[in-house]
Amino acid sequence: MTQQAFKLNTRLATGDKEYLIQTVNDDHGRRVLTSLFSNGELLETFEETFDAGIKNDDLKKLVNSTHEDKKRELEQLIDLYQKSSEITDPGNLHYLGQALYYKRMYHESIKLLERAVELDPEFHEGFLSLGVVQFSLNKFKDACQSFSRAVELRPGYADYRNHLGESFLALDSCKRAVIEFDEALKLNIYYGEAYLNQAMAYILNAIRREDFNLFTNQEEMTGKALEKASVIMPDIVDQDFLEGQKFFEQGNLEKAFAKFLTCREKRRQKKDAESSSFYLKFMLGTGRLNEKMITRRIKSLQNALSNNPHYPDLHYELAVAFTLLGRYIHEKAVEEYKKALSVNPDFERAQKNLKLAENELKGTEVIIKAILKG
Q: What CA dihedral angle connects 226, 230, 236 and 242, to 10 degrees?
């Protein structure tokens, strides 16, 4: 049976941003797709599957409900930002700042993250996130300062070192960039992105001729770093990567650098679009998180992992989502045991299981609090 085509569009505006939420049904793929655009740029796509042979009325309801859910989520996020002056907890400012970042609301995000680190000067995650947003706005000196502070607070975090190295690389400071990438790889020898950055630093140094010692064995070191990056991150080996290797072998270093930079940014954009649980964390902290939001997030992450099984961040985000879902399952269990006892107060199995479920819920709450602290 041919399904009727449904399409919904909603536009929302805030400040200098205009958002378009578009929902359509894909009969061939048996899914409803909701896409979020900002000023013409695709930010994220969410899909909801449906069974073959679904009635048109039911499909229409699914399209409408999916569209309304995403619309409500964005409206709520905008509303939370507009009321953010009431937030005094650095952690919640951080979560909301991250949620805004993933919606490309960079200037709004920076304001909240700056407040977070002002409230807590030891907040290393806040400095890292602030640096990421500053880097996205090409404020490389500011980003370098933020990443430096994050590294100062947590020198043993490989990703902090990698981000700091990237900011040095953006400032054409190749030697200092290589130092940070080397430190990142000492901490995590399987850090594929750091190997790619290391190769890019060697190439840029050969172009700029900044440091002679790096230049002497540049070709060999670059080749090894690229090989390790491709082995650890096989998904990065696309047409741009292959062309970058070809340009490098031909000695066309500027074109090689540009291609590898494109690879890095494409991978990061894809990762950003797929891997954020900060919105869920913030909603949990404000008591607005619900089961439907979590199950939607789980489906989205599972789809992302089917295409990117080597992304550790995605596995982590999925674990967070399942942990949050577990809390609601335990709460429901406690509620049902209490209902059973309200009908039959002498129900011994219900009494016993209620105590077990309440203890389990307390343990889950401890885990949730740890997640909220980052």
A: 60
Q: Which residues pair with 18 in a beta bridge?
A: 13
Chain centroid to CA 82: 23
Residue spans of the domains in the chain: they are: 7-73, 83-154, 172-274, 278-372
H or E element that contains 49: strand 41-49
* CA proximity to 168, closest of 118, 217, 214, 125: 214
From the CB of residue 82, how many other CB atoms can be counted at a distance below 10 Å?
Answer: 10
What is the number of alpha carbons within 13 Å of residue 60 lying toward its C-beta?
4
- Out of 174-188, 251-265, 331-345, which region has the weakest mean confidence (pLDDT)? 331-345
The answer as to CATH 1.10.260.40 being correct for domain 83-154 is no
Using the structure block, give the residue that is written with the tokens 């902090």: 160
Reported pTM: 0.76
pLDDT digits (tens, 9 = 90+) for 204-242: 999 988 877 776 788 899 999 999 999 999 989 999 999
Q: What is the pLDDT of residue 248?
A: 95
- Which strands, in side-by-side order, build the sheet including 17-26? 7-14, 17-26, 31-38, 41-49
The letter for the amino acid at 113 is L
- What is the band of 330 on the pLDDT scale with cuts at 50, 70, 90? confident
Using an 8 Å Cβ cutoff, are 318 and 302 in contact? yes
**DSSP symbols for 2-43:** PPPP-EEEEEEEETTEEEEEEEEEETTTTEEEEEEEETTEEE
Q: At what angle do helices 278-285 and 56-82 cross, to 10 degrees?
A: 70
CATH code: domain 7-73 is 2.20.25
